[in-house]
Amino acid sequence: MGESLLRNNAVPHGRVWISKGSKRMPPKILERGPFPQISEGLQEHLFTKGMGSAMEEKILLLDGRKIPSQGQESFSKLSQMMKRILLIFIFFFLLFSIGRAQEEKIFRVIILGNVKVEEGVVRGAVKSKEGGPFSADQVREDLKAIYGLGYFSDVQVDIKSTPQGKEVIFVVVEKPSIREIRIVGNQKIKLEDIKEKLTLAPRSILNLEKVKENEEQIRKLYFSKGYYGVRLEHRVEYLETNEAVVIFEITEGPKGYIKKILFKGNRKIKTSDLKKLMSTKQRNIFSLITKRGILDEDVLKNDIQLLHAYYIDHGFLEVKISEPKLDLGDPRRIRIEIEIDEGPQYRFGDIDFRGDVLTTREDLFRSIQIKRDEIYSTTAIRKDIQALIEKFANQGYAHVDITPHTTTDPKRHLVHLTFEIDKKKLVSYEKIEISGNTKTRDKVIRRELLVAEGELYNASQMNKSRDRLKRTGYFKEVEFTTSRGSTEEKVNLDIKVEEAPTGALSFGLGYSSIEKVVGTASISDRNLFGLGYHGVLKFTLGSISEEFRLSFTDPYFLGTRYSAGIDLYHENRDLDTYSYRITGGAIRGGKELSETLRADGAYKLERIKVHDVTEDASRYIKEQEGDRLTSSISIGLTMDTRNDYFNPTKGGRHNLTVENAGGILGGDNTFFKVTASTSWYFPLPWNLVLNLRGKAGLIESYGGKKTPIYEKFFVGGLYTIRGFEYGMAGPYDENKEPLGSEKMVVATSELIFPISREIGLRGAIFFDIGKGFDKWSDLTPLKMGVGVGIRWFSPLGPIHIDLGVNPNPKRGEKRRVFDFTVGTIY
Q1: How many helices (H) and strands (E) does the chain have?
Q2: 0.70 cut: is pTM over it?
Q3: What is the torsional sign of CA 646, 647, 652, 655?
Q4: End position of a domain, from candidates 464, 479, 499
Q5: 3-class DSSP state of 594
Q6: How does pLDDT run across 184-227, given as a tens digit for each residue?
Q7: Count: domains in the chain
Q8: What is the CATH number of the domain that holds 452?
Q9: Which of 71, 716, 762, 801 is close enough to 724 for a disulfide, judged by CB 3.0 to 4.6 Å?
Q10: Of the residues 440, 475, 499, the one at which a domain ends
């Protein structure tokens, strides 16, 4: 390699190096002369001090002698002339040398000193290539690049001139590699969980910055679990084999929670409203089973952004929210303080439209909700943009572009808004493609669509089609996307679905003084064979009753918009003074009259036998003994406007059903029966939902026959008046045997409130009032029940628990009745 690369820590001409901590990093690369006309000492002086300063020295002659002081004036002209000659000579010689250097090629690039780092990795960082032109500047950049790889503690370069060209030699000193990573002191968090957060790995090159980063990742992991008092230290043990052991020492400390979240400066927005926006929450009683109360700094940063967006959305365009102040003095009780400068509240000023209006401005104003002088809201702007897009998209302008332009008036605190409309071209559907349906047939999906290939694009009908598919219950997810067709005037509709488990295995338990413990089990499928058929097989077994029911429904019978179904059932019930058995079946049909209204009809034929009537049974029950045949037809109307079938918060469901038995239909029983029900849902503040329900029924026999006991209304118990046992809120005999009623009325008010959003737990407070009665004169006094309940979509399925209390129990009536049901999905 020639001369030593290091010479008393000086920079030798022709060689440079980088060493960690050096102030000359990266060093200046110098190319040796050769200059035989100038002494080596002068060359070094020239290259060290610079060409200009060297020639300004007054004490230097070519032969090394100093100018004598005597006769200096007479020698002045000669001296100046020699200086000029020397300058000119050096100038032209340097030009010649530089020209030669520029023409020189790189003969060879050599990498030395690498042991674990592959040579190809180093060469990949070097742009000076063999056979390419030599450039001192490029070698300097290569030196930086090699050091920047992070694998080396020292990098040097040696440049040698050979007859074939320049030989560039890079000499590297590798950093130690990591032999082992040790985690010490962890007890509350598993070692595997900590290792998942590490980016360091054994046999990798030691990088102290990465060690610090990994320490911070471990700290964040502990913080995310609530260990805010954790102390972390790292140390590195260096081995003689150029290896190192990285050790993270952990002192965990106690687990802590957020005790208080404080806001300062919020005068217009309530603290409670701000807290609702945040995912960061104070600890509560459910923190043991949820992550509520755990401080996650990343989540907290996102919460600050949400708060800022919320203020902007409420007109506070100049709001300033400070960084949260964390009080970790006691890691077990963390306080968070957020300071807010709300600033003035802005309102909407002038509102206008421009561009492809296509209609009158009055018509467009009817499509939007924003009004002048209302509080500025980005949400309101987005909603109105969507309303305008839908208005134009429903006319076939699928690519309409609505751009809001705003200007602010800081003096009057107004925001002027203009909607710019670019309708673009009319568009029609070219292809409708369906994917993701591994079970459900294509035709089952297509029959729910309100759009078809070849029709003009219609956003409203497309959204309704998506809602119809969701409402079937066949799919977890339904996604509609459009893509460009063969031309700009055509789009393809891509429908992507994710199949849901449509089969259900459920069981329920209840308790009453009549049945004691009753259990139910059912198996059902809403999408049988992937053809959209509905099938149910249900068994009920109690201490005094048993029931079997089989149902099958085709919602699109023979490919039409009509539904058809069949029911088969058998029921045995053993009561204190009598027993009865019902065996029968029904055929059903129906049709959707609109998006929310449906009509259904059914014909029922069943054989009923009342038997084992005891001697002390009431006269009415004794008259029911024997076999009877019921042949009836029923018609019903149902309107459903609920926003969610499982957890509705608004809308309602209403039903009216009329049934007639006997007469021209034949059979032994003759009666006319009417039932009506209504249920309304109202969203309230604080995520409360008010559910108001009502139910009424009337049955009258004709032809001189009495009403069958098994067709009457049994009021009391779950879904009627809670706090009463089954049928005990209506007529009963001296044996406390419910007799059913010919009339009934029930009203319910239920307030549903969230207990834990994280686990989907909700509570309910209810008030039921009503009665089962035979004569209108017996309507009063009404029966009442109050109580509390739990609604939980648990891992086992929906759980429904109610504890009803009868506030004014009569003799023989229970004061409290407890009911619950549990279901699961498979």
Answers
A1: 14, 33
A2: no
A3: positive
A4: 499
A5: coil
A6: 999 989 999 999 999 999 988 888 889 999 999 999 899 888 88
A7: 8
A8: 3.10.20.310
A9: 716
A10: 499
